Automatic annotation (TrEMBL):
Pfam families: Arv1 (PF04161). It comes from Irena cyanogastra. Mediator of sterol homeostasis involved in sterol uptake, trafficking and distribution into membranes. This is Protein ARV. The chain crosses the membrane at residues 126-147, 159-182, 189-209, 215-235. The lineage of its organism: Eukaryota, Metazoa, Chordata, Craniata, Vertebrata. Signal peptide: none annotated. It comes from the Eukaryota. Its main location: endoplasmic reticulum. GO terms for biological process: intracellular sterol transport; regulation of plasma membrane sterol distribution; sphingolipid metabolic process; sterol metabolic process. The gene is Arv1. GO terms for cellular component: cortical endoplasmic reticulum; endoplasmic reticulum membrane; Golgi apparatus. It is found in: Endoplasmic reticulum membrane. Belongs to the ARV1 family. Keywords: Endoplasmic reticulum, Lipid metabolism, Lipid transport, Membrane, Transmembrane, Transmembrane helix, Transport.
Amino acid sequence: GLGVLPRAMAALGAYRCIECNGEATELYRDYQRGVLRISICKSCQKPVDKYIEYDPVIILINAVLCKAQAYRHILFNTKINIHGKLCVFCLLCEAYLRWLQLQDSSQNTDPDDLIRYAKEWDFYRMFGIASLEQTSFFIGIFVTLWWMTPEMLKGKSDFILLLKALLLSTYGKLLLIPAVIWEHDYTPLCLAFIKVFVLISNSQAIRVTLNLNRILPWFAIFFGLILENGVVCLFQKMGWNV
């Protein structure tokens, strides 16, 4: 119930209604002696954030289902600050997958130290390539949104919030590891589904953060993919196996 609310939530601040995206000054009111009441949104007359009394597992399930309410709860009404670490870990997962595929294509089993060093360098190279591709993908999204909706990205805080939302919404890449560990004939199909899921999560994050319709986020993602694929083509022309 409300008794398990994090202490950070008790302070007054700028929150969002998870139903209508309206602003709210508080998520709940403390009447002391253990009596708490969830605040009601003045715009839609619904609870500002029903998820504050939900178990984290339920919130995670709703986020996996890409529910806008769960995304608003996570982005606006919590103090989550793991986007940087999550981004690095997701990139490591992607780099490991590419490195593993690169090793599978190589038949050299020489245990020489030079060979082992080369394989280790390949992993760092894959991490760098994955980082550049994701950066170009985000740049494509930012440029498109700034060009089409400049009023939504006026200040530095707007860009930071959108970047945080995009980084958090890439959590689907964590599924790359179990997809590789439980390798089977359908692994390529699984990887394709993971890619689609991450793009859907990115779209929902953009939509919730900037309060847009469903079309514009996908338009931005489309241009982000074009720029990302352009980087991939550049690496391939340089003779790098990506």
